[in-house]
Amino acid sequence: EPEVTQTPSHQVTQMGQEVILRCVPISNHLYFYWYRQILGQKVEFLVSFYNNEISEKSEIFDDQFSVERPDGSNFTLKIRSTKLEDSAMYFCASSASRSGANVLTFGAGSRLTVL
Amino acid sequence: AQTVTQSQPEMSVQEAETVTLSCTYDTSESDYYLFWYKQPPSRQMILVIRQEAYKQQNATENRFSVNFQKAAKSFSLKISDSQLGDAAMYFCAYREINTDKLIFGTGTRLQVFP
Questions:
Q1: Residue of B nearest to A57 (CA)
Q2: pLDDT digits (tens, 9 = 90+) for A3-60
């Protein structure tokens, strides 16, 4: 069964450093998403991406965050200058369409620890 | 703002028995979608079942079924004939039409005992 793959599975970084989390969505999917889950809290929407641009973003997704699809297969989330509160599990997801009760396929997540 | 509430942080069930996980939500919309996702210890969230709000019939997927009460804004998940592999975190989620954003509840951890 097709999967969404994420790398790295765990990254430890110092506060203020830049971090790039990578995702390979399912190949025929056109919509891409990032969610995050701070330990013990809800899974929260960060951003959605379609046709090489952001289609929707949450209040969490401020100027420190950016997304891009650099090569037609990878979908990356960059955090420019990490803060302690960015420590969380980051989930990538993709879907074939946006209409109807479209199903998101999630990756296994990348755990980010900011020290 | 839309919210999703799962009032049971943990539930347990004996193998082969039935368990119901609760979910309520708050919205002023009339059309929307509801989902249950399962997150096993490997942490990859998997869709269990989905419901379109305009459909009155409760969705069913094998051993999984929902009790969708639109007026009460309730969307509970029933797992019949529970199996050890059902042990996971279960998230209820809501999505409006014409938006990409899934709004999740805080989750219910389900333990299944042999």
A1: B101
A2: 899 999 999 999 999 999 999 999 889 999 999 999 888 899 999 999 899 999 999 9
**B91 and chain A: CB distance < 8 Å anywhere?**
yes
Q: State which residue of chain B sits closest to A97, comparing Cα positions.
A: B100
d(CA B68, CA B75): 5
Match 């993709």 to its residue by tokens.
A94
B77 dihedral zone (left: phi>0; alpha: psi -120 to 50; beta): beta
CB A83 within 8 A of CB A114: yes
Select from A35, A38, A42 the residue whose CB has the most chain B CBs within 10 Å, as the one to mutate to test that interface. A42
Chain A / chain B CB contacts < 8 angstroms: 50
Rounded to an integer, what distance in angstroms lies between the CA atom of residue B77 and that of residue B23? Answer: 8
Q: What is the pLDDT of residue B41?
A: 83
Strand partners, A43: A37
Residue type, A9: S
3-state helix, strand, coil in chain A (%, to 5): 5, 50, 50
Give per-residue pLDDT as tens, B49-63.
999 999 889 999 999
- pLDDT mean over B8-24: 97
> Looking at chain A, which runs of residues are DSSP E strands?
5-7, 10-13, 19-24, 31-37, 43-50, 53-57, 65-68, 75-79, 88-95, 105-106, 110-114
Map residue B55 onto helix, strand or coil.
coil
